[in-house]
């Protein structure tokens, strides 16, 4: 279990219908690659965020698969068109089975 | 031929800013304007420098932008983690920081701006880190943090961010005068095989290149600093140690009386600059 995992998201609280908004997300996570060794020479098992999705009112916006070379605290920034008021739902999937979620509402 | 030479000189004169020097950008953090260039405090003015300039002005645009938005600032992750530690009950007294101090937004506002600060009861000059550890051992009954450990630096960042925008105002009179003088002596002492003092770079050559990097004035209003090269937070004593190490000298230890005195003196040189920590640097 990765410790100190905390998702953070920045979404404008208001937009006009049809506007393109910039969304920034960041999750604090070690992103242990699985190739490093500890001080006694044992391989530290891989533990990374392997998938990230963002949905708007149930419709998928982005779906990203991450690999072991991605550095600590992965940050995603993307643009999305907002057709109506609703909720952005962000989901991070951890190798250890944990799922971290965050929801941000946007008003039109 | 002569004409060409003249135009070349003209082109040089017309260059907007000296390469590597402080730029004229305006530092705002989440829309709040910082005082990142101010009239020099007495400790700096007596050296003939009339403007105190934050290290932010010497950095590249990309690095500068990261600091201007708290979401983009990677140091804020540490601030979040420190907030959890702030509220966590620890030690034999069964208390957390929050038990006495409440929310850091109120109780810690302005604290960073006046440290290092003389503690009359204990009769010692305390840096923020020393104060945090005294609080932990005496009031919480918890173990002291390592002086420059990640937990300590994060806690410093949490406390620092509450003073954002407030001018540095470290006292140099009364009992602090002794430390100010000692720090000043260290500042002008040449260390190491390269025989460099702090002043050689940060007073006489700020704005010039040091290899591929730009020398700043060595102001510490942005500490603790997130250094991209370390991918982590760096305390001011880490920076002092790194600088003396780079002169190929034997350095003082973090938290040593020498560095505490140097911190008092260097802070005084930057009095008036906004606290902008945790800052982002190269």
TrEMBL record, chain A:
Q: Which Pfam families match?
A: SoxZ (PF08770)
Starting at the broadest rank, the lineage of the source organism is:
Bacteria, Pseudomonadati, Pseudomonadota, Alphaproteobacteria, Rhodobacterales
Q: Where is the Sulphur oxidation protein SoxZ domain?
A: 10-102
- The name of this protein is Thiosulfate oxidation carrier complex protein SoxZ
UniProtKB/TrEMBL annotation, chain B:
Say which species the protein is native to.
Answer: Thetidibacter halocola
Q: Which residues bind substrate?
A: 239
| Swiss-Prot/TrEMBL keywords | Electron transport, Heme, Iron, Metal-binding, Periplasm, Signal, Transferase, Transport
- Documented EC number(s): 2.8.5.2
SUPFAM superfamilies the record matches: Cytochrome c
Where along this sequence does the record place binding of heme c 1?
97, 100-101, 135
What protein is this chain from? SoxAX cytochrome complex subunit A
Record carries keyword DNA-binding = no
Q: What is catalysed by this protein?
A: S-sulfanyl-L-cysteinyl-[SoxY protein] + thiosulfate + 2 Fe(III)-[cytochrome c] = S-(2-sulfodisulfanyl)-L-cysteinyl-[SoxY protein] + 2 Fe(II)-[cytochrome c] + 2 H(+); L-cysteinyl-[SoxY protein] + thiosulfate + 2 Fe(III)-[cytochrome c] = S-sulfosulfanyl-L-cysteinyl-[SoxY protein] + 2 Fe(II)-[cytochrome c] + 2 H(+)
Q: Where is the active site?
A: 243 (cysteine persulfide intermediate)
GO CC term (a single one): periplasmic space
Kindly list the organism's lineage. Bacteria, Pseudomonadati, Pseudomonadota, Alphaproteobacteria, Rhodobacterales
Q: According to its UniProt record, which protein family does this protein belong to? A: Belongs to the SoxA family.
Cofactor entry = heme c; heme
**Entry binding sites for heme c 2:** 198, 201-202, 243
How would you summarize the oligomeric state and partners of this protein?
A: Heterodimer of SoxA and SoxX.
Which NCBIfam families does this one have?
Answer: thiosulf_SoxA
Spell out the molecular function terms from Gene Ontology: electron transfer activity; heme binding; metal ion binding; oxidoreductase activity, acting on a sulfur group of donors, cytochrome as acceptor; protein heterodimerization activity; thiosulfate-cyanide sulfurtransferase activity
The protein's matches in InterPro entries, at most eight in alphabetical order, are given as:
Cyt_c-like_dom, Cyt_c-like_dom_sf, SoxA
Record localization:
Periplasm
Instruction: Tell me the leader sequence span.
Output: 1-19
The note on cofactor binding and number reads: Binds 2 heme groups per subunit.
One record GO biological process? sulfur oxidation
Positions of the Cytochrome c domain: 82-168
Q: Does the keyword Transcription apply?
A: no
């Amino acid at each position: 279990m990765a410790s100190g995992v905390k998702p953070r998201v920045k979404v404008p609280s208001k937009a006009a219908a049809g506007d393109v908004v910039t969304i920034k997300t960041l999750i604090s996570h070690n992103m242990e690659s699985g190739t490093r060794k500890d001080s006694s020479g044992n391989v530290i098992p891989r533990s990374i965020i392997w998938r990230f999705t963002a949905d708007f009112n149930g419709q998928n916006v982005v779906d990203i698969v991450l690999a072991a070379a991605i550095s600590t605290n992965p940050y995603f920034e993307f643009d999305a068109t907002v057709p109506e008021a609703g909720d952005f739902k962000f989901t991070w999937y951890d190798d250890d089975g944990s799922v971290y979620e965050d929801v941000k509402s946007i008003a039109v | 031929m002569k004409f060409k030479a003249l135009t070349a000189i003209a082109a040089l004169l017309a260059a907007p800013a000296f390469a590597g020097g402080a730029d004229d950008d305006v530092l705002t953090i989440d829309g709040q304007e910082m005082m990142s260039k101010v009239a020099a405090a007495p400790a700096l003015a007596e050296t003939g420098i009339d403007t105190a300039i934050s290290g932010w002005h010497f950095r590249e645009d990309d690095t500068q932008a990261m600091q201007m938005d708290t979401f983009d600032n990677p140091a804020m992750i540490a601030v979040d983690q420190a907030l959890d530690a702030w509220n966590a009950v620890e030690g034999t007294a069964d208390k957390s920081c929050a038990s006495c101090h409440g929310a850091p937004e109120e109780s810690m506002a302005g604290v960073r701006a006046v440290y290092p600060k003389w503690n009359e009861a204990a009769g010692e000059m305390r840096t923020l880190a020393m104060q945090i550890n005294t609080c932990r051992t005496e009031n919480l009954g918890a173990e002291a943090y390592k002086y420059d450990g990640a937990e300590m630096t994060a806690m410093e960042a949490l406390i620092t961010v509450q003073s954002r925008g407030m001018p540095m105002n470290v006292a140099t009179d009364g009992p602090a005068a002794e430390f100010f003088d000692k720090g000043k002596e260290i500042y002008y002492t040449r260390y190491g095989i390269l025989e460099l003092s702090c002043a050689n770079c940060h007073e006489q050559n700020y704005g010039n290149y040091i290899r591929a990097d730009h020398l700043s004035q060595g102001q510490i209003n942005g500490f603790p600093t997130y250094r991209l090269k370390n991918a982590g937070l760096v305390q001011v004593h880490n920076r002092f140690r790194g600088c003396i190490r780079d002169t190929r000298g034997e350095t003082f230890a973090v938290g040593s009386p020498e560095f505490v005195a140097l911190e008092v003196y260097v802070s005084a040189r930057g009095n008036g600059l906004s606290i902008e920590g945790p800052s982002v640097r190269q």
